Structure formats: structure tokens, C-alpha cells
Amino acid sequence: MIKYTLFSGKDLSEHLRELNDSIKQKIKNEPDNYILNCNETEYKSHLFESFEVDKLNLLLDQVHATEKEKMIPAEYFPGFLYNVESGRSYLKPVITFHIPFTGNPSLIRMKPSTYSFSNPTVEIENNTIKHDVIVFNQSAEQVDEEYKRLIYDLQERVGRVNSQIKEFNDSLSQRIESEFTARKQSILQRKNFLSSLSVPIKRAENVPQTFSVPTPARKKITPKPVVTENGFKPEPTISSTDYHEILQVIHDTGVMFERAPSTYSQKGEEDLRDHILMNLAPRFEGEVSGETFNKTGKTDILLRYQGENVFVGECKIWKGKKVFLDTISQLIGYLTWRDSKAAVIMFVKQKDISKVIKTVEDEISTHLNYLGFVSKQNDSWSNYRFHINGDKNREIKLAVLLVHIPE
Questions:
Q1: Domain count of the fold of the chain
Q2: What is the three-class DSSP state of 123?
Q3: Is the domain of 109 the same as that of 214?
Q4: pLDDT over 70 for what percent of the chain?
Q5: Residues 322 and 243 in one domain
Q6: If DSSP codes are grouped into helix, strand and coil, which group holds residue 260?
Q7: Which residue has the higher pLDDT, 347 or 138?
Q8: Is 187 within a domain?
Q9: Measured CA distances, 305 to 167, 199, 202, 339, 354 (Å)
Q10: How much is the pTM?
Q11: Whether residues 164 and 235 fall in one domain
């Protein structure tokens, strides 16, 4: 078996630079149609998990030793103690320490940016470092001391490698984001599509910038997304900033309801929805309407741009998980565009809101269109990723807002 001097081969920095180049090349090699139509979040996750570098980890609790007699060349003997003849080998007992580790075996041979000139020479087999100690006249204590020095050296050098790996992994998402965005923008510019056609939603004039309602204190590899579309059609979308502002207005209106439960707890979905609409309509120039028919049914809150839906909200009284999941399905049925924005507003009239929050958190991931959790604004407002019916690449941003108005 070949012996290697650890941490003295190819520069680790060079290896990590090559990985960065591979990320850029992989994104560059994707067809234009794929970059424009794939689910960006899923594709970026796929790249991250493909290129993330696992740290080295010495499994010291699994270290064991074996003993065997081996033929040892005369050159390995301490000359002043043994009468041996050059060029010949002699039988001596050898203690082999087996040190398992996790991570890419090639990394343990690479030279970190901070390195030592004296490194252990070992064999590597099946993610196990095998280090021989030839027993000449050492005591057991001396052999044990040699083992401890070996472990100290390994831990020190593994720490240096892992420090560089951590730096690489910590910036990996940003590099992928930057490369993907640059490639997509380049394609869009070539096709003369400006800024991904984000919908400019203007604030109406003479409306205060701040809403008057007070606000409360506030290694698994992801499969590469499959794209079946041919060509790219620009689709309207509102910006994340405008989407957040719409959600903030809805949330703040809900807080107003919660501060006067006796006034609002007896009202039905339509009346409560109308109060939300009254606060939304003055803030944005556009078509904000209630009970607007669209596609497969009618929706409660709808923001349209040039005849297309860019935000849809569903208002429902909480009646358990089935109604909740059905409401999500109903809402998704109104949406056809990539990067659509949506909200489910649930009016909770039960006294125990904590059970409802737990049900939402536990059950939402069971929906067939669910892609993932994004963030939690507060206990009553969480953000998720879904996809439209039949196409996982057409992602929907969906917020769930709970309004507690107990009867």
C-alpha cells in the first residue's frame, strides 16, 4: 500500500479556486431556457449541496490498534543499537494505529494556507489513516506517547484545513447567487427583457408613508430542477419590497381587529375582508378589489396589473386544518404566473390561538404544492414557498397571517 505524507500535496487554496470555477462553468453551460424557467431556489440549493465541502472530522472514539510482525528494512533500525546489514530486512513487531475520519480523503493530503514542513507519513484506506510504529525497544508508555504526538499533529493540521473549508462554505451561497443572477441578467438583456419585468407599483399620492394602525413589538442533495418549458415568456411580478408592504398593511389591520375583539369577533369573512381592502386600496395605484372572479373561482383580495394577477389573498374563518389546506389549494388555483405573491388570512375565533399556530406549522408542509419554509415574521405571520399546480419551477411566495379575534 502506498504511503502518503499528509497535508503536503496540492494547495488547498488552488482546489477551492477550481471549485469556484466549476460553479461558474456549470451555470454558464446551462441552456438559456433552463436558467430562465427553472425554480431558482431549488436550483441554487442543488448547486450549494453539490459544491459544499464537508469538513474533515477525526473519529477519535473509534481509533483502534493492531499488532503484526513485518519485515523492516535495515535502514529503519537505530544503527547504534542493532547489528543489521544494509539492504536486508528483518522481522520486527509493528503496532498499527487505525484512525477513521469523515470527509473527502483527498483533502487530508492537501496543503492548507498555513502549513508545517514536518508532517506524518501514513497509509490511507477506506477513510482510515493507518500509522505504523515499529517496536524496537520502546516501552508501552513510549509507544503511547508517540500515538499522542500523532493525534496532536493531526488535529492541528485538520483544524487548519477546516478553517479554509468553513470560509469557502460560508460564502458559497453568495457566490452561487451572484453567478446565477449575472447569467440570468445577461440572458434577459440579450433578449431585451428589462429587469425581469418587475411590476412598478406606485404609492398613491397624499397617503401617509406610515400606516396609522399601531404595530406590535416585533447531506442530502437537492435534485436538480427539471424544466419542460420551451422558450421564456416574461411574466408580471411585484417586488419583494412591495409584497412585504402589502403584508404589513394586512398584518397591521389584523392587529387593530385584535385590539377590539368585541367589535370584530361577530363579523363574517366578507366584512373583515372589506376592512382590509379599505386599508389596502388607498395605498397603491392599481386594481384592488374584493370577490373578483378569476380563472377557476372568486378570490377575496386581488391586485391586478394590466389584466394579470400579481397578488392574491384569501380570507377565511379558521375551522381546522382541512379548511386551512383547502384554502391554500383554492388560492393556488387562481395563480398562473411565476413569482406570484399570495397570502392566506385566517380569522381565529377560538380562545386558544397557540393550538392553531401549532397546527399551521405542523400541517402546512403536507400540502402537495409545498416547497419550503422561508421565515417567521412573528407568531402570527410566517412566509413559505409553494408552486403553482403542475409546475414546480413556477414558485409562489405565500404568507400565512393569523388574526386572533376570540368570541
A1: 2
A2: strand
A3: no
A4: 83
A5: yes
A6: coil
A7: 347
A8: no
A9: 44, 7, 12, 14, 37
A10: 0.62
A11: no
Q: Is residue 347 part of a domain?
A: yes
Beta strand pairing call for 89-102 and 64-73:
antiparallel
Task: Give the number of C-alpha atoms closer than 13 A to the C-alpha of residue 286, restricted to the C-beta side.
Answer: 24
How many helical (H) and strand (E) elements, i.e. helices and strands, does the chain have? 10, 17
Q: Are 237 and 341 in contact (CB under 8 A)?
A: yes
Say if residue 250 is in the same domain as residue 364. Answer: yes
Q: Say yes or no: 255 and 369 in one domain.
A: yes
Both 64 and 102 in one domain: the answer is yes
147 and 209 share a domain? Answer: no
380 by DSSP, 3-state: which?
A: coil
311: β partners: 303, 341
φ and ψ at residue 91, rounded to 5 degrees: -75, 125
Mean pLDDT of the chain: 82
Q: Which residues of 367-395 are buried (b: 16+ CB within 10 A; e: fewer)?
A: bebbbeeeeebeebbbbbbbbbeeebbbb
Sign of CA dihedral 80, 84, 90, 91: negative
What distance in Å separates the CA atoms of residue 109 and residue 162, rounded to the nearest whole number? Answer: 13
Answer whether residue 190 is part of any domain: no
Cβ-contact 258, 381 below 8 angstroms: no
Strand order in the sheet with 381-388: 287-289, 301-305, 308-317, 340-348, 391-404, 381-388, 370-378
Task: Please state the rounded mean pLDDT for residues 262-280.
Answer: 84
Range of the domain at 19: 3-170
Do the Cβ atoms of 316 and 323 come closer than 8 Å? yes
* Residue 106 and residue 208 in one domain: no
